[in-house]
Design brief:
The chain is mainly beta and 381 residues long. The chain has 2 domains: 2-278, Immunoglobulin-like (Sandwich), CATH 2.60.40.10; 287-378, Macroglobulin (MG2) domain (Immunoglobulin-like, Sandwich), CATH 2.60.40.1930. Helix content is 10%, strand content 38%. It contains 4 helices and 25 strands. The strands form 8 sheets. A 4-stranded mixed sheet has the order 3-2-4-5. A 4-stranded antiparallel sheet has the order 14-7-6-17, with no helix packed on it. A hairpin with a 5-residue loop joins strand 21 (315-322) and strand 22. Helix 1 (21-34) packs parallel to helix 4 (99-111). The longest helix is centred in the N-terminal third of the chain and has 14 residues, at 21-34. The protein is globular, with a radius of gyration of 22 Å. It starts with a strand and ends with a strand.
């Protein structure tokens, strides 16, 4: 069997008029710093007359999921009724207190759920015509069945502007006491987005879903076998006001069940900067021909971790470390190994001996006949 390393999709419903939202933005940032395989997007809701980043897609999603107040958060659009004590809208995490804990707990739970699909994204951008072309490929490594759809968002970071972009904040200086992080304490109740003084940059703003609201149907059949691949291409001309340099593509594969309650679970997600390409990696969970790559221990680690491999017969073996963009960052071995168990150690440094950033990395064992991979998290104090 095989499984695809999971990326967790965190969706926040927010608005410039939402005074509690800055603290939640900070909490979500903390979650994805701790768990770098999480992807955060912000759906600006209410109306275009109040929030200029609202669009038809975010409003439709807002109504479908019955968002009656902000901030609200969905994690992989999964059912968290047992976690948050909700029943009518079980995907939404809406409590202001301990909001970060709920989001982080949900993220951890989803990271421990195996995924039957990995996602590749190929994107290009023509700066003259401002035409963006994106192809999303769902690679199934296990069986799946149901109404499974592909979604593709264009997301802009660091969005700023005039007074209509200014962010209300109930946690800052001179405002009601709140649970906002320290980065907001020095701001007044209205955080300006003008280019003078303290500037509030709106993060991960969902500009458009290139697919229909709940994904493109019909691309993926209702019954899928392992080893099948399904692709969908999208094109869109970016408005001149959007900064293409700050844009990324967020694609995800999810179930669809009327888009209003249980059943819209995200199977996996992927993101990449607009104009770039990323290929997902499949993690093998069983040995082939008795060649094995054990899970690293400890994992996560902050100083050193051990990696065991078992070789049934003498052969050339490489064990290397890659980042999530596919770049080789460290080589543990690349030579002929004798039959038996071998243990290698990694201290979290790159090939030049420099510290690598905290985050998710891939351990890849390669022989002449097979390739095995495991994920590992580097988390230095």
């Amino acid at each position: 069997m095989a499984q695809a390393p999971r990326k967790v999709l965190i969706e926040e419903f927010t608005g410039t008029w939402c005074g509690y939202c800055p603290s939640i933005i900070s909490d979500i940032d903390a979650t994805r710093t701790t768990y770098p395989t999480s992807i955060a997007v912000a759906h600006h809701v209410y109306s275009t007359s109040v929030d200029p980043m609202t669009n038809n897609f975010t409003l439709t999603l807002n109504n479908a999921y019955q968002v009656t107040s902000t901030p609200q958060v969905m994690v992989d659009r999964a059912d968290w009724s047992s976690l948050i004590g909700a029943s009518s809208t079980p995907q939404l995490i809406g409590a202001y207190t301990d909001h970060h804990n709920y989001t982080e707990d949900a993220t951890v739970q989803r990271l421990n759920v195996s995924s039957p699909v990995s996602i590749d994204i190929t994107s290009s951008f023509n700066s003259s015509s401002r035409l963006a072309t994106v192809t999303v490929t769902a690679n199934f490594v296990d069986t799946a069945s149901g109404d499974i759809r592909i979604s593709c968002l264009l997301v802009e970071d660091k969005v700023t502007g005039g007074a209509s972009y200014d962010q209300h904040n109930y946690g800052g200086n001179g405002c009601r006491a709140g649970d906002a992080s320290s980065e907001f304490y020095s701001y007044p109740c209205l955080i300006p987005t003008s280019l003078t003084g303290q500037v509030f940059y709106h993060r991960d703003v969902v500009r458009i879903n290139l697919a229909p609201t709940f994904g493109t149907k019909g691309v993926i059949p209702s019954s899928v076998s392992a080893g099948q691949h399904y692709s969908k291409s999208y094109t869109y001309t970016l408005p001149s006001a959007w900064n293409s340099a700050n844009m990324k593509v967020v694609a995800f594969v999810s179930y669809y069940n009327a888009g209003t309650s249980k059943g819209d679970e995200v199977l996996n997600a992927q993101d990449v900067a607009l104009g770039q390409t990323i290929a997902a990696v499949v993690e093998n969970t069983s040995a082939v021909n008795n060649v094995s790559l054990d899970a690293a221990y400890p994992n996560p680690f902050n100083q050193i971790t051990s990696i065991k491999v078992n070789i049934p017969a003498s052969q050339h073996v490489s064990v290397k470390i890659y980042d999530l963009l596919g770049y080789e960052v460290a080589i543990l071995t690349d030579e002929n190994l004798s039959t038996g168990e071998h243990t290698f150690y990694w201290n979290g440094n790159n090939k030049d001996g420099s510290f690598l950033a905290n985050g998710l990395y891939l351990i890849r064992l390669q022989t002449e006949n097979q390739s095995l991979s495991k994920t590992i998290v580097l988390s230095r104090n």
